[in-house]
Specification:
The complex is a heterodimer of chains A (about 450) and B (about 210).
Chain A (H helix, E strand, L loop, with lengths): L5 H16 L5 H13 L3 H12 L15 H14 L3 H20 L3 H9 L11 H17 L3 H20 L7 H17 L3 H11 L6 H13 L5 H13 L8 E9 L4 E8 H8 L17 E8 L5 E8 L2 E3 L2 E5 H41 L4 H15 L13 E9 L2 E11 L3 E9 L4 E8 L2
Parallel strand pairs in A: 1-10
Antiparallel strand pairs in A: 1-7, 2-3, 4-5, 4-8, 6-7, 8-9
Chain B lengths: L2 H28 L28 H16 L2 H7 L7 E10 L5 H18 L3 E2 L2 H10 L4 H4 L2 H11 L3 E14 L2 E14 L5 E13 L2
Parallel strand pairs in B: 1-2, 1-3
Antiparallel strand pairs in B: 3-4, 4-5
The chains are: A alpha+beta (about 450), B alpha/beta (about 210).
Chain lengths: ~450, ~210
């Protein structure tokens, strides 16, 4: 038997590589058990699954090394810990993940950037999307507010502003929409309580994008008497209020209730015929599309966004037996969908570019094999392309436990003990009673997170 | 030696060789693990503390910010005239420093307070109210975090502690990011308030910048 030629060696090498990496699960696959546990309301089991991904044996621990999916897994665990009322640990997870994501953002990922267009959609380090980036500090503000740590919440409010300014400088935060409104509203609340009325008014003005909510009325009226800042939007809003809705400022305390329900859309690998993909993302393709005529694979695999079957979608509240309005502050589901639709042509374009690279490599293998003997040429091309297809893992990474919708309820109350009845509904129904103690001239923040 | 004997010897040799390679690999891999080192003056790594590890405040930054402020305080009119020449050593309470930065630096703030307290106690010019006693009073009065930095609260609180002066301050930051560089500029403002009048009798600012560059 003669020694193997170069083409056969290449096929062997590629097959070994495929066996090693081809079986790698996508991020969504890795998280499937965590999602199942959360759907059944078993957040504890979900946290255990995430501990495994993070390589630790307890939620009290964070990894020594932030490899692979760990920064994202820390964000996911942070949300489940928040759902369990473990605010201190949740804040620790979100802060640690934020630090790592910032490092990744500053990292020079030349290999990943090129790899994304040549062999693997998941080759690049994870970069948080603008909605995720802004929601991170807003959700962490909630952790600190729930712990009655106003100074910590102030730090998160400043970080939220910095993140937004940075995104605007990159031209990624221009379409701020309601996700910015959620963070702005909370930042307004934080600076109001820290005794900075002008700063609070500026944030409330930004948050007016969420609509004419009742949750704005009383604080904005109260602050506009103390503060000097009145922007154009705020002026219009105040003009509308003073005419018809006089404020009720008798009680000395207040309760702020924030609810985060459901989960945002996540990504799964999906196939699209080449023709349709070219029609969709032709402008984003780098390389000669004619090469695709030689490819044996006639579909493009890309990460498609799908909506989870959320268990909870609605909330009603009563405070001391009296119904109080629950208003939608942010529709993160819509934000994440809009964001994905904007970048989808680029994602499919990158998938097509990788396909061109694969077809070119297959043609190369065919040419080498033909020169050596001819009989294995077809096989060499097919094996090369199949191997490279196996290496291409659609990038399904995203922060999946981000709440789909954030609701707000704010009410003035007298200091003392109060009872809040929470009714959550959707595919399941949950009723909960929470007792809060409001100090004289103080406030109490209640956070209800149900990411299912 | 017979042919079978030779083959056995070769097999034994190759097995020994394989074991040797495995041991060498294990020893090499074991050497790749993290290793704890001691640093600072008098150790093998005297410059270990000098490198910046992140944009947050480390011990070197804290020492610098505190020493700059203390230098200004010890050469101030307040210290050299009012305090040092007082008939009885005035009572000073050290109040929490407000964190107005974009960093969670609770541990660093505790270190700043401890450094200031150490200087005050060791100066011998003032008597310092223990921070445990202050915390006790905060708990008794059920003060919230938002009340702590209120000047009215500080005055009332100071009288209850029997203090003539309050040492307090604020640490703030300006953070900017341009492309792949992130810079944080910290300022520590140190204030001394007279409890009786509520007036600021001393104020100084020290600054320090940290950056993350690629």
């Amino acid at each position: 038997m003669g020694s193997p030629n170069r083409a056969q060696l290449c096929i062997c090498a590629l097959t070994i590589v495929m066996l090693l990496f081809g079986g790698c699960a996508t991020y969504t696959d890795i998280l499937s058990k965590t999602h199942q546990a959360a759907d059944s309301g078993n957040y504890e089991a979900g946290i255990r699954e995430l501990n495994d991904i993070l390589g630790v044996n307890s939620f009290e621990k964070i990894p020594d090394e932030w490899t692979a999916h760990r920064p994202l897994a820390a964000l996911e665990r942070g949300m489940l810990l928040q759902a369990q009322g473990q605010y201190e640990w949740s804040a620790r997870d979100l802060s640690a993940a934020e630090t790592e994501l910032e490092f990744l953002d500053l990292k020079l990922d030349a290999v990943g950037n090129i790899g994304k267009y040549i062999y693997n959609d998941s080759a690049e380090v994870y970069k948080a999307q603008p909605t995720e980036r802004l929601a991170l500090n807003a959700l962490n503000m909630l952790n600190y507010l729930a712990m009655d740590n106003l100074e910590g919440a102030g730090v998160e409010a400043r970080r939220f502003t910095l993140a937004r300014e940075y995104l605007v400088s990159l031209d990624e935060g221009g379409e701020q929409g309601s996700h910015g409104a959620f963070g702005s509203y909370l930042a307004g609340f934080v600076f109001e309580k820290l005794g900075e009325p002008d700063r609070a008014l500026r944030y409330y003005e930004e948050a007016l994008d969420a609509g004419n909510l009742q949750a704005f009325r009383e604080p904005v009226l109260r602050l506009s008497d103390r503060g000097n800042y009145i922007g154009r939007k705020m002026k219009e809003y105040l003009a509308g209020l003073t005419a018809s809705n006089p404020p009720d400022t008798e009680p000395d305390g207040e309760v702020l209730i924030i609810l985060g329900l459901g989960r945002v859309p996540y990504k799964i690998p999906k196939r699209m015929p080449i023709g349709a993909a070219i029609g969709y993302a032709g402008a984003w393709v780098t390389g000669d599309l004619k090469v695709l005529g030689y490819t044996a694979f006639k579909v493009v695999v890309y990460p498609e966004q799908v909506k989870p079957n959320n268990m909870l979608s609605k909330a009603t509240l009563s405070l001391d037996g009296r119904d109080v309005p629950v208003e939608l502050l942010t529709d993160l589901d819509a934000e994440i969908t809009r964001e994905y639709e904007t970048i989808k042509p680029k994602i499919i374009g990158a998938a097509l570019t990788r396909m061109i690279a694969r077809a070119a490599a297959a043609e190369g293998a065919r040419a080498v094999a033909r020169k050596k003997g001819g009989a294995t040429a077809m096989l060499a091309a097919l094996a090369t392309e199949a191997t490279l297809v196996g290496l291409d893992k659609p990038d399904t990474r995203s922060w999946t436990f981000l709440p789909a919708r954030i609701y707000v309820c704010r009410a003035r109350v007298n200091s003392g003990r109060h009872e809040i009845s929470v009714n959550l509904s959707g595919r399941v129904r949950i009723t909960r009673t929470i007792e809060v103690e409001v100090p004289p001239k103080g406030f109490s923040v209640v956070v209800i997170t149900e990411p299912r | 030696m017979s042919l079978t004997g030779n083959r056995n010897l070769r097999r034994l040799g190759s097995r020994f060789y394989l074991q040797l390679v495995l041991i060498a690999a294990l020893v090499t891999l074991a050497g790749c693990g993290p290793k704890a080192v001691r640093g600072g003056a008098g150790t093998d790594n005297p410059r270990l503390d000098e490198a910046a590890m992140s944009v947050t405040l480390d011990r070197a930054d804290i020492e610098y910010l505190v020493s700059e402020n203390i230098k200004a305080l010890s050469s101030s009119v307040l210290w050299n005239v009012t305090i040092e020449k007082a008939d009885t050593r005035p009572v000073v309470a050290i109040w929490p420093i407000q964190n107005a930065t974009s960093q969670h630096i609770e541990d660093q703030m505790a270190a700043i307070l401890s450094s200031i307290e150490t200087y005050m106690v060791n100066s011998g010019d003032v008597r310092v109210v223990s921070r445990e006693r202050q915390q006790q009073l905060v708990n008794e009065l059920r003060l919230r975090q938002s009340d702590i930095y209120d000047p009215a609260t500080i005055g009332k609180f100071g009288r209850q502690l029997g203090a003539q002066y309050f040492v307090t301050g604020k640490i703030s930051s300006v953070e900017e990011r341009l492309q792949k560089t992130r810079r944080v500029q910290y300022s520590l403002v140190l204030q001394v308030l007279e409890v009786e009048t509520g007036l600021i009798v001393f104020q100084n600012e020290a600054t320090r910048s940290k950056a993350l560059k690629r």
